[in-house]
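Because showing beats explaining, we think one record worth quoting, sequence and C-alpha cells together, and here it is:
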Amino acid sequence: MPMNGYPVMNPYPKNSFMPKQPGGMQSLFNSFKSQDGSVDLNKMVNTAGQMMNAVSQVSSLVKGFGGIFKV
C-alpha cells in the first residue's frame, strides 16, 4: 500500500475480465440471425441495399469534390 493509504489501482483491466469477442466472420453472421437462431435473409438484403445506397452517395460526393478541385 502506498504512503497515501489508498491501494494502487491499475486503470487497465487484465484480459481475464474482458469477454472474448467472436471472430470477424462469425460476428458478421451473428448480426444477421433472427431471434430463433436462423439466418434472416430479409435483413441481409436490406442491409446490402443500404450499403449500396451509401456507396452511391459517397461516390457522387467524391465526384463533386473532384469537379471543384480540378485545376
DSSP finds two helices and no strands in the chain.
